[in-house]
Amino acid sequence: MTIRKPQYEDLLAADQALGLGISKADIQAFTELLEEVSHDYAIVDALTPELPEVRYPRTPGHYPAPAENPYNAWYVKSEVKGRPGGQLEGLNLALKDNVMLAGVPMMAGASSLRGYTPDVDATLVTRLLDQGATILGKAQCEYFCVSGSSHTSAQGPVKNPWDEARSAGGSSSGCSALVSAGLVDAAIGTDQGGSVRIPAAYAGFVGMKPTHGVVPYTGVMPVEMTLDHAGVMSGDVRTNARVLEAIVGDDGLDPRQRRLPDSFDYLSQLEAGATGLRIAIIAEGFGWENSEEEVDAAVRAGAERLRSLGATVDQVSLPLHRKGHAIWTPIAIEGTANQLEGFNYGSNWKGLYVTSLMRAQQDWRANASDFPADVTSVLLAAHYFRGHYHGQYYAKAQNLVRRLKAAYEAVLADYDLLLMPTVPLKAPRLPDPGCGAREWVGRALEMNTNTAPFNATGLPAISVPCGMAQGLPVGMMLIGRDYTEATLYRAAAAYEAAFDWKTL
Protein backbone atom coordinates (compact mmCIF):
# COMPACT_ATOMS: atom_id res chain seq x y z
CA MET A 1 0.00 0.00 0.00
CA THR A 2 1.42 3.43 -0.97
CA ILE A 3 0.89 6.13 1.63
CA ARG A 4 -0.75 9.22 0.17
CA LYS A 5 0.34 12.40 1.95
CA PRO A 6 -2.51 14.63 3.13
CA GLN A 7 -3.11 17.65 0.92
CA TYR A 8 -4.41 21.10 1.85
CA GLU A 9 -7.90 20.13 0.65
CA ASP A 10 -7.88 17.03 2.86
CA LEU A 11 -7.17 19.04 6.00
CA LEU A 12 -9.67 21.72 5.00
CA ALA A 13 -12.33 19.02 4.79
CA ALA A 14 -11.16 17.53 8.11
CA ASP A 15 -11.38 20.93 9.78
CA GLN A 16 -14.97 21.35 8.58
CA ALA A 17 -15.92 17.83 9.68
CA LEU A 18 -14.38 18.21 13.14
CA GLY A 19 -15.42 21.82 13.72
CA LEU A 20 -11.90 22.91 14.74
CA GLY A 21 -12.06 26.43 13.28
CA ILE A 22 -8.50 26.44 11.90
CA SER A 23 -7.36 29.43 9.87
CA LYS A 24 -6.34 28.90 6.25
CA ALA A 25 -2.76 29.85 7.09
CA ASP A 26 -2.62 27.24 9.85
CA ILE A 27 -4.17 24.61 7.61
CA GLN A 28 -1.21 25.11 5.27
CA ALA A 29 1.16 24.78 8.24
CA PHE A 30 -0.55 21.59 9.41
CA THR A 31 -0.31 20.20 5.87
CA GLU A 32 3.45 20.64 5.99
CA LEU A 33 3.67 19.20 9.53
CA LEU A 34 1.76 16.09 8.53
CA GLU A 35 4.25 15.36 5.79
CA GLU A 36 6.59 14.25 8.60
CA VAL A 37 3.86 12.03 10.07
CA SER A 38 3.29 10.56 6.61
CA HIS A 39 6.97 9.64 6.50
CA ASP A 40 6.54 7.48 9.64
CA TYR A 41 3.43 5.83 8.13
CA ALA A 42 5.48 5.04 5.03
CA ILE A 43 8.13 3.33 7.17
CA VAL A 44 5.46 1.17 8.83
CA ASP A 45 4.00 0.39 5.40
CA ALA A 46 7.36 -0.87 4.13
CA LEU A 47 8.04 -3.20 7.07
CA THR A 48 7.20 -6.91 6.75
CA PRO A 49 4.02 -7.77 8.69
CA GLU A 50 4.27 -10.13 11.65
CA LEU A 51 1.89 -13.01 10.90
CA PRO A 52 1.73 -16.53 12.35
CA GLU A 53 3.25 -19.27 10.20
CA VAL A 54 0.88 -21.36 8.07
CA ARG A 55 2.22 -24.90 8.50
CA TYR A 56 -0.09 -27.38 6.77
CA PRO A 57 -0.83 -27.59 3.04
CA ARG A 58 -4.33 -27.07 1.72
CA THR A 59 -6.20 -25.95 -1.39
CA PRO A 60 -8.87 -23.27 -1.70
CA GLY A 61 -11.34 -26.15 -1.89
CA HIS A 62 -14.70 -26.00 -3.59
CA TYR A 63 -18.22 -24.76 -2.99
CA PRO A 64 -20.29 -27.92 -2.60
CA ALA A 65 -23.27 -28.55 -4.85
CA PRO A 66 -26.63 -29.22 -3.16
CA ALA A 67 -26.21 -32.96 -3.63
CA GLU A 68 -23.20 -32.98 -1.27
CA ASN A 69 -24.62 -30.32 1.04
CA PRO A 70 -28.01 -31.68 2.16
CA TYR A 71 -28.65 -29.25 5.03
CA ASN A 72 -26.99 -26.25 3.34
CA ALA A 73 -24.44 -26.59 6.14
CA TRP A 74 -21.13 -26.28 4.27
CA TYR A 75 -19.72 -23.06 2.87
CA VAL A 76 -16.45 -24.41 1.45
CA LYS A 77 -15.07 -27.94 1.54
CA SER A 78 -11.27 -28.14 1.70
CA GLU A 79 -9.55 -31.06 3.41
CA VAL A 80 -6.53 -30.15 5.54
CA LYS A 81 -4.73 -33.04 7.19
CA GLY A 82 -2.93 -32.57 10.48
CA ARG A 83 0.26 -34.10 11.88
CA PRO A 84 0.30 -37.90 11.81
CA GLY A 85 0.28 -39.48 15.25
CA GLY A 86 -1.33 -36.58 17.08
CA GLN A 87 -3.88 -37.04 19.87
CA LEU A 88 -6.75 -36.03 17.55
CA GLU A 89 -5.69 -38.24 14.63
CA GLY A 90 -8.76 -39.82 13.09
CA LEU A 91 -11.11 -36.98 14.02
CA ASN A 92 -12.78 -35.01 11.24
CA LEU A 93 -13.75 -31.43 12.08
CA ALA A 94 -15.56 -28.47 10.58
CA LEU A 95 -14.79 -24.83 11.31
CA LYS A 96 -17.42 -22.15 11.66
CA ASP A 97 -16.94 -19.71 8.81
CA ASN A 98 -15.63 -16.90 11.00
CA VAL A 99 -12.58 -19.01 11.94
CA MET A 100 -9.69 -18.23 9.63
CA LEU A 101 -8.19 -21.01 7.51
CA ALA A 102 -5.46 -19.47 5.37
CA GLY A 103 -5.99 -19.79 1.63
CA VAL A 104 -9.62 -20.91 1.99
CA PRO A 105 -12.50 -18.44 1.42
CA MET A 106 -14.37 -17.04 4.42
CA MET A 107 -17.48 -14.86 4.42
CA ALA A 108 -18.91 -15.11 7.97
CA GLY A 109 -22.37 -15.49 6.47
CA ALA A 110 -22.20 -11.99 4.97
CA SER A 111 -22.51 -10.95 1.34
CA SER A 112 -20.17 -8.03 2.07
CA LEU A 113 -17.31 -10.48 2.70
CA ARG A 114 -17.76 -12.66 -0.39
CA GLY A 115 -14.39 -13.07 -2.07
CA TYR A 116 -12.32 -12.64 1.10
CA THR A 117 -9.60 -15.23 1.70
CA PRO A 118 -7.68 -15.10 5.00
CA ASP A 119 -3.90 -15.10 5.02
CA VAL A 120 -3.51 -16.63 8.50
CA ASP A 121 -4.66 -19.70 10.35
CA ALA A 122 -6.42 -19.12 13.65
CA THR A 123 -4.30 -20.30 16.57
CA LEU A 124 -6.88 -22.95 17.35
CA VAL A 125 -6.62 -24.25 13.76
CA THR A 126 -2.86 -24.73 14.08
CA ARG A 127 -3.37 -26.49 17.40
CA LEU A 128 -5.98 -28.85 15.96
CA LEU A 129 -3.69 -29.74 13.06
CA ASP A 130 -0.66 -30.10 15.34
CA GLN A 131 -2.66 -32.73 17.22
CA GLY A 132 -3.55 -34.66 14.07
CA ALA A 133 -7.11 -33.59 13.35
CA THR A 134 -8.38 -33.39 9.80
CA ILE A 135 -10.31 -30.27 8.88
CA LEU A 136 -12.92 -30.93 6.21
CA GLY A 137 -13.89 -27.33 5.52
CA LYS A 138 -15.78 -24.24 6.57
CA ALA A 139 -19.36 -24.47 7.82
CA GLN A 140 -22.02 -21.87 7.17
CA CYS A 141 -22.75 -19.32 9.87
CA GLU A 142 -25.27 -16.55 10.31
CA TYR A 143 -24.78 -13.07 8.84
CA PHE A 144 -21.95 -11.54 10.91
CA CYS A 145 -22.80 -14.14 13.59
CA VAL A 146 -25.69 -12.06 14.95
CA SER A 147 -28.58 -14.53 14.85
CA GLY A 148 -29.31 -17.35 17.29
CA SER A 149 -31.40 -19.05 14.62
CA SER A 150 -30.29 -20.44 11.25
CA HIS A 151 -32.20 -18.35 8.69
CA THR A 152 -30.04 -15.24 8.19
CA SER A 153 -26.95 -16.34 6.21
CA ALA A 154 -26.49 -14.77 2.79
CA GLN A 155 -26.14 -18.36 1.56
CA GLY A 156 -29.66 -19.25 2.68
CA PRO A 157 -31.05 -21.07 5.73
CA VAL A 158 -29.34 -24.03 7.37
CA LYS A 159 -31.73 -26.91 8.10
CA ASN A 160 -32.05 -28.97 11.25
CA PRO A 161 -31.43 -32.68 10.57
CA TRP A 162 -34.19 -33.60 13.02
CA ASP A 163 -36.74 -31.65 10.97
CA GLU A 164 -35.54 -29.73 7.93
CA ALA A 165 -38.35 -27.20 8.32
CA ARG A 166 -36.87 -26.15 11.68
CA SER A 167 -33.93 -24.05 12.82
CA ALA A 168 -30.59 -25.69 13.45
CA GLY A 169 -29.72 -22.84 15.84
CA GLY A 170 -27.15 -20.15 15.31
CA SER A 171 -24.97 -18.49 14.78
CA SER A 172 -22.84 -21.67 14.47
CA SER A 173 -25.60 -23.07 12.28
CA GLY A 174 -23.66 -25.09 9.71
CA CYS A 175 -21.58 -26.69 12.46
CA SER A 176 -24.84 -27.60 14.17
CA ALA A 177 -26.27 -29.48 11.21
CA LEU A 178 -22.98 -31.23 10.42
CA VAL A 179 -22.46 -32.44 14.00
CA SER A 180 -26.11 -33.39 14.49
CA ALA A 181 -26.17 -35.41 11.26
CA GLY A 182 -22.88 -37.14 12.11
CA LEU A 183 -21.11 -35.71 9.04
CA VAL A 184 -18.19 -34.57 11.23
CA ASP A 185 -16.95 -35.79 14.59
CA ALA A 186 -16.78 -32.29 16.01
CA ALA A 187 -16.82 -28.65 15.01
CA ILE A 188 -15.41 -25.40 16.28
CA GLY A 189 -18.11 -22.81 16.85
CA THR A 190 -18.08 -19.39 18.42
CA ASP A 191 -20.40 -18.10 21.10
CA GLN A 192 -21.24 -14.46 21.92
CA GLY A 193 -24.76 -14.95 23.23
CA GLY A 194 -25.21 -18.71 23.02
CA SER A 195 -24.08 -19.57 19.50
CA VAL A 196 -22.49 -22.91 20.47
CA ARG A 197 -25.07 -23.90 23.07
CA ILE A 198 -28.28 -22.84 21.28
CA PRO A 199 -27.50 -25.12 18.30
CA ALA A 200 -26.59 -27.93 20.72
CA ALA A 201 -30.03 -27.64 22.31
CA TYR A 202 -31.95 -27.33 19.05
CA ALA A 203 -30.17 -30.15 17.24
CA GLY A 204 -29.24 -32.59 19.98
CA PHE A 205 -25.50 -32.70 20.73
CA VAL A 206 -22.90 -31.48 23.24
CA GLY A 207 -21.92 -27.82 23.06
CA MET A 208 -19.21 -26.39 25.33
CA LYS A 209 -18.58 -22.68 25.79
CA PRO A 210 -15.46 -22.63 27.96
CA THR A 211 -14.28 -19.87 30.28
CA HIS A 212 -13.74 -16.57 28.49
CA GLY A 213 -10.23 -16.41 27.07
CA VAL A 214 -9.23 -20.00 27.75
CA VAL A 215 -9.25 -20.65 23.99
CA PRO A 216 -7.31 -17.97 22.10
CA TYR A 217 -9.51 -16.01 19.71
CA THR A 218 -6.54 -15.10 17.54
CA GLY A 219 -7.49 -15.45 13.89
CA VAL A 220 -11.22 -15.59 14.56
CA MET A 221 -13.37 -12.72 13.27
CA PRO A 222 -14.47 -10.83 16.39
CA VAL A 223 -17.99 -9.71 17.21
CA GLU A 224 -17.55 -8.16 20.69
CA MET A 225 -14.26 -8.89 22.36
CA THR A 226 -15.58 -9.15 25.90
CA LEU A 227 -18.26 -11.63 24.77
CA ASP A 228 -16.29 -13.65 22.18
CA HIS A 229 -15.74 -17.33 23.01
CA ALA A 230 -14.60 -20.19 20.78
CA GLY A 231 -16.15 -23.50 21.76
CA VAL A 232 -16.54 -27.14 20.78
CA MET A 233 -19.57 -28.88 19.30
CA SER A 234 -19.61 -32.70 19.20
CA GLY A 235 -21.82 -35.74 19.31
CA ASP A 236 -20.41 -37.00 22.61
CA VAL A 237 -18.71 -35.68 25.72
CA ARG A 238 -15.34 -37.41 25.38
CA THR A 239 -14.75 -36.09 21.88
CA ASN A 240 -15.68 -32.63 23.07
CA ALA A 241 -13.19 -32.79 25.94
CA ARG A 242 -10.41 -34.14 23.67
CA VAL A 243 -10.85 -31.30 21.20
CA LEU A 244 -11.06 -28.58 23.84
CA GLU A 245 -7.94 -29.87 25.57
CA ALA A 246 -6.07 -29.51 22.27
CA ILE A 247 -6.91 -25.85 21.69
CA VAL A 248 -6.78 -24.19 25.13
CA GLY A 249 -3.92 -22.17 26.56
CA ASP A 250 -2.07 -18.90 26.09
CA ASP A 251 -0.80 -18.07 22.60
CA GLY A 252 0.81 -14.71 23.42
CA LEU A 253 -1.34 -12.97 20.81
CA ASP A 254 -4.70 -12.57 22.54
CA PRO A 255 -4.83 -10.13 25.48
CA ARG A 256 -8.15 -11.66 26.56
CA GLN A 257 -6.07 -14.51 27.97
CA ARG A 258 -4.99 -13.74 31.52
CA ARG A 259 -4.45 -15.72 34.71
CA LEU A 260 -4.91 -19.03 32.89
CA PRO A 261 -4.24 -22.30 34.73
CA ASP A 262 -0.80 -23.82 34.28
CA SER A 263 -2.24 -27.01 32.81
CA PHE A 264 -5.52 -28.40 31.51
CA ASP A 265 -6.84 -31.91 32.09
CA TYR A 266 -10.37 -32.50 30.89
CA LEU A 267 -10.25 -36.27 30.42
CA SER A 268 -9.21 -37.77 33.76
CA GLN A 269 -12.54 -37.07 35.50
CA LEU A 270 -14.83 -38.32 32.73
CA GLU A 271 -15.54 -41.60 34.48
CA ALA A 272 -15.71 -40.20 38.01
CA GLY A 273 -19.52 -40.20 37.98
CA ALA A 274 -21.96 -37.78 39.51
CA THR A 275 -21.71 -38.97 43.11
CA GLY A 276 -20.66 -36.10 45.33
CA LEU A 277 -21.43 -33.34 42.86
CA ARG A 278 -23.49 -30.47 44.26
CA ILE A 279 -25.90 -28.99 41.72
CA ALA A 280 -28.13 -25.93 42.09
CA ILE A 281 -31.21 -25.74 39.90
CA ILE A 282 -31.66 -22.02 39.22
CA ALA A 283 -35.38 -21.34 39.57
CA GLU A 284 -35.23 -18.18 37.46
CA GLY A 285 -33.92 -20.16 34.47
CA PHE A 286 -37.40 -21.65 34.04
CA GLY A 287 -40.77 -20.12 33.28
CA TRP A 288 -39.77 -17.36 30.87
CA GLU A 289 -42.57 -15.78 28.86
CA ASN A 290 -41.69 -17.98 25.88
CA SER A 291 -40.78 -21.09 27.89
CA GLU A 292 -42.42 -24.28 26.69
CA GLU A 293 -43.74 -26.44 29.51
CA GLU A 294 -42.37 -29.64 28.00
CA VAL A 295 -38.88 -28.13 27.79
CA ASP A 296 -38.88 -27.02 31.42
CA ALA A 297 -40.25 -30.43 32.43
CA ALA A 298 -37.59 -32.32 30.48
CA VAL A 299 -34.79 -30.32 32.11
CA ARG A 300 -36.20 -30.82 35.60
CA ALA A 301 -36.42 -34.53 34.84
CA GLY A 302 -32.78 -34.40 33.77
CA ALA A 303 -31.87 -32.84 37.11
CA GLU A 304 -33.67 -35.66 38.91
CA ARG A 305 -31.70 -38.20 36.89
CA LEU A 306 -28.47 -36.56 38.06
CA ARG A 307 -29.81 -36.90 41.60
CA SER A 308 -30.40 -40.59 40.96
CA LEU A 309 -26.74 -40.90 39.96
CA GLY A 310 -25.62 -39.63 43.38
CA ALA A 311 -25.48 -35.85 42.93
CA THR A 312 -26.94 -33.49 45.53
CA VAL A 313 -29.54 -31.41 43.69
CA ASP A 314 -31.29 -28.40 45.26
CA GLN A 315 -33.37 -25.60 43.84
CA VAL A 316 -31.94 -22.14 44.49
CA SER A 317 -33.34 -18.69 43.73
CA LEU A 318 -31.00 -16.27 41.95
CA PRO A 319 -33.16 -13.23 41.11
CA LEU A 320 -30.46 -11.30 39.24
CA HIS A 321 -30.37 -14.04 36.58
CA ARG A 322 -33.64 -12.58 35.28
CA LYS A 323 -31.77 -9.35 34.50
CA GLY A 324 -28.68 -11.04 33.04
CA HIS A 325 -29.89 -10.86 29.44
CA ALA A 326 -30.73 -7.17 29.88
CA ILE A 327 -27.20 -6.51 31.17
CA TRP A 328 -25.76 -8.37 28.16
CA THR A 329 -27.88 -6.43 25.63
CA PRO A 330 -26.08 -3.01 25.54
CA ILE A 331 -22.73 -4.79 25.43
CA ALA A 332 -23.81 -6.97 22.52
CA ILE A 333 -25.56 -4.21 20.57
CA GLU A 334 -23.02 -1.42 20.94
CA GLY A 335 -20.01 -3.71 20.97
CA THR A 336 -21.07 -5.46 17.77
CA ALA A 337 -21.57 -2.14 16.01
CA ASN A 338 -18.26 -0.82 17.36
CA GLN A 339 -16.42 -3.81 15.93
CA LEU A 340 -18.12 -3.52 12.56
CA GLU A 341 -17.60 0.21 12.26
CA GLY A 342 -14.06 -0.08 13.62
CA PHE A 343 -13.16 -2.52 10.86
CA ASN A 344 -13.31 -5.50 13.24
CA TYR A 345 -10.64 -4.44 15.71
CA GLY A 346 -10.83 -0.73 16.40
CA SER A 347 -7.92 0.37 18.58
CA ASN A 348 -6.70 0.24 22.18
CA TRP A 349 -5.98 -3.47 21.87
CA LYS A 350 -2.70 -5.44 21.92
CA GLY A 351 -3.84 -8.53 20.05
CA LEU A 352 -3.06 -9.75 16.55
CA TYR A 353 -4.70 -7.50 13.97
CA VAL A 354 -5.61 -9.36 10.76
CA THR A 355 -5.29 -6.41 8.41
CA SER A 356 -6.49 -8.40 5.40
CA LEU A 357 -9.86 -8.74 7.11
CA MET A 358 -9.86 -5.04 7.93
CA ARG A 359 -9.33 -4.24 4.25
CA ALA A 360 -12.08 -6.63 3.22
CA GLN A 361 -14.50 -4.99 5.64
CA GLN A 362 -13.64 -1.34 5.14
CA ASP A 363 -16.40 -0.72 2.57
CA TRP A 364 -19.14 -2.53 4.48
CA ARG A 365 -21.51 0.43 4.16
CA ALA A 366 -21.65 -0.15 0.41
CA ASN A 367 -23.39 -3.45 1.18
CA ALA A 368 -25.50 -2.29 4.12
CA SER A 369 -28.72 -2.42 2.08
CA ASP A 370 -28.18 -6.20 1.82
CA PHE A 371 -28.02 -6.70 5.58
CA PRO A 372 -30.76 -8.91 7.05
CA ALA A 373 -33.21 -7.36 9.48
CA ASP A 374 -31.47 -8.70 12.60
CA VAL A 375 -28.16 -7.03 11.66
CA THR A 376 -30.02 -3.86 10.68
CA SER A 377 -31.81 -3.80 14.04
CA VAL A 378 -28.48 -4.01 15.89
CA LEU A 379 -27.01 -1.13 13.87
CA LEU A 380 -30.11 1.03 14.33
CA ALA A 381 -30.20 0.39 18.08
CA ALA A 382 -26.48 1.08 18.45
CA HIS A 383 -26.69 4.29 16.44
CA TYR A 384 -29.59 5.54 18.53
CA PHE A 385 -28.28 4.67 22.00
CA ARG A 386 -24.68 5.68 21.31
CA GLY A 387 -25.88 8.90 19.73
CA HIS A 388 -28.03 9.82 22.72
CA TYR A 389 -25.94 8.41 25.57
CA HIS A 390 -22.42 8.22 24.10
CA GLY A 391 -21.59 4.71 25.27
CA GLN A 392 -22.59 5.26 28.88
CA TYR A 393 -24.97 2.28 28.91
CA TYR A 394 -22.39 0.00 27.34
CA ALA A 395 -20.07 1.10 30.14
CA LYS A 396 -22.69 0.74 32.86
CA ALA A 397 -23.60 -2.74 31.64
CA GLN A 398 -19.94 -3.76 31.74
CA ASN A 399 -19.77 -2.49 35.31
CA LEU A 400 -22.92 -4.43 36.19
CA VAL A 401 -21.39 -7.63 34.82
CA ARG A 402 -19.22 -7.78 37.94
CA ARG A 403 -22.34 -7.78 40.13
CA LEU A 404 -23.95 -10.43 37.95
CA LYS A 405 -20.91 -12.67 38.04
CA ALA A 406 -20.64 -12.24 41.81
CA ALA A 407 -24.26 -13.40 42.15
CA TYR A 408 -23.52 -16.61 40.27
CA GLU A 409 -20.28 -17.11 42.17
CA ALA A 410 -22.10 -16.71 45.48
CA VAL A 411 -24.20 -19.76 44.63
CA LEU A 412 -21.19 -21.57 43.20
CA ALA A 413 -19.43 -21.10 46.54
CA ASP A 414 -21.82 -23.77 47.88
CA TYR A 415 -22.40 -25.78 44.70
CA ASP A 416 -20.22 -27.20 41.95
CA LEU A 417 -22.66 -26.47 39.14
CA LEU A 418 -25.72 -24.46 38.22
CA LEU A 419 -28.46 -26.08 36.12
CA MET A 420 -31.20 -24.66 33.88
CA PRO A 421 -32.65 -25.11 30.37
CA THR A 422 -30.19 -24.12 27.68
CA VAL A 423 -33.00 -22.43 25.77
CA PRO A 424 -36.65 -22.04 26.74
CA LEU A 425 -38.07 -23.67 23.61
CA LYS A 426 -37.61 -26.50 21.15
CA ALA A 427 -36.20 -25.79 17.70
CA PRO A 428 -38.78 -23.51 16.04
CA ARG A 429 -39.81 -23.52 12.43
CA LEU A 430 -37.68 -21.47 10.06
CA PRO A 431 -39.44 -18.24 9.11
CA ASP A 432 -40.66 -17.64 5.59
CA PRO A 433 -38.04 -15.66 3.62
CA GLY A 434 -40.66 -13.02 2.89
CA CYS A 435 -41.75 -12.49 6.47
CA GLY A 436 -41.61 -9.00 7.95
CA ALA A 437 -38.82 -7.55 10.06
CA ARG A 438 -40.63 -8.26 13.33
CA GLU A 439 -40.84 -12.02 12.74
CA TRP A 440 -37.36 -12.20 11.19
CA VAL A 441 -35.70 -10.46 14.13
CA GLY A 442 -37.90 -12.19 16.69
CA ARG A 443 -36.87 -15.61 15.39
CA ALA A 444 -33.22 -14.56 15.39
CA LEU A 445 -33.12 -13.36 18.99
CA GLU A 446 -35.87 -15.17 20.89
CA MET A 447 -33.92 -17.90 22.63
CA ASN A 448 -30.86 -16.60 24.51
CA THR A 449 -32.25 -15.41 27.85
CA ASN A 450 -30.39 -18.19 29.69
CA THR A 451 -27.29 -18.42 27.54
CA ALA A 452 -26.31 -14.74 27.12
CA PRO A 453 -25.54 -13.97 30.79
CA PHE A 454 -22.67 -16.45 30.71
CA ASN A 455 -21.09 -14.70 27.75
CA ALA A 456 -21.10 -11.47 29.73
CA THR A 457 -19.73 -13.10 32.88
CA GLY A 458 -17.42 -15.47 31.00
CA LEU A 459 -18.32 -18.48 33.17
CA PRO A 460 -18.00 -21.87 31.44
CA ALA A 461 -21.25 -23.54 30.36
CA ILE A 462 -22.12 -26.75 28.57
CA SER A 463 -25.34 -27.81 26.87
CA VAL A 464 -26.10 -31.52 27.09
CA PRO A 465 -29.09 -33.21 25.43
CA CYS A 466 -31.23 -34.48 28.30
CA GLY A 467 -34.32 -35.83 26.57
CA MET A 468 -36.93 -35.31 23.88
CA ALA A 469 -40.10 -33.24 23.64
CA GLN A 470 -42.56 -33.84 20.82
CA GLY A 471 -39.89 -35.54 18.75
CA LEU A 472 -37.25 -32.81 19.15
CA PRO A 473 -34.14 -32.59 21.39
CA VAL A 474 -34.05 -30.65 24.65
CA GLY A 475 -30.83 -29.17 26.02
CA MET A 476 -29.86 -28.96 29.70
CA MET A 477 -27.24 -26.34 30.55
CA LEU A 478 -24.67 -26.74 33.31
CA ILE A 479 -22.55 -23.79 34.46
CA GLY A 480 -19.44 -23.77 36.64
CA ARG A 481 -16.85 -21.49 38.16
CA ASP A 482 -14.05 -20.15 35.96
CA TYR A 483 -11.80 -22.93 34.60
CA THR A 484 -13.96 -25.80 35.92
CA GLU A 485 -14.61 -27.30 32.49
CA ALA A 486 -13.44 -30.68 33.83
CA THR A 487 -16.30 -30.69 36.34
CA LEU A 488 -18.80 -29.80 33.63
CA TYR A 489 -17.52 -32.68 31.52
CA ARG A 490 -17.68 -35.02 34.50
CA ALA A 491 -21.38 -34.31 35.08
CA ALA A 492 -22.20 -34.42 31.38
CA ALA A 493 -20.34 -37.71 30.91
CA ALA A 494 -22.15 -39.27 33.87
CA TYR A 495 -25.51 -38.34 32.38
CA GLU A 496 -24.53 -39.50 28.91
CA ALA A 497 -23.27 -42.87 30.18
CA ALA A 498 -26.36 -43.60 32.24
CA PHE A 499 -29.15 -42.47 29.91
CA ASP A 500 -29.98 -42.62 26.23
CA TRP A 501 -31.47 -39.16 25.88
CA LYS A 502 -33.08 -40.00 22.54
CA THR A 503 -35.42 -42.43 24.33
CA LEU A 504 -36.37 -40.10 27.21
TrEMBL record:
Residues 77-488 form the Amidase domain. It holds the Pfam family Amidase. GO terms for molecular function: transferase activity. This is Putative glutamyl-tRNA amidotransferase subunit A. The keyword Repeat does not apply. PANTHER family: AMIDASE (PTHR11895:SF170), TRANSAMIDASE (PTHR11895). It comes from the Bacteria. Keywords: Transferase. Gene3D superfamilies: Amidase signature (AS) domain (3.90.1300.10). Signal peptide: none annotated. InterPro entries: Amidase (IPR000120), Amidase_CS (IPR020556), Amidase_dom (IPR023631), AS_sf (IPR036928).
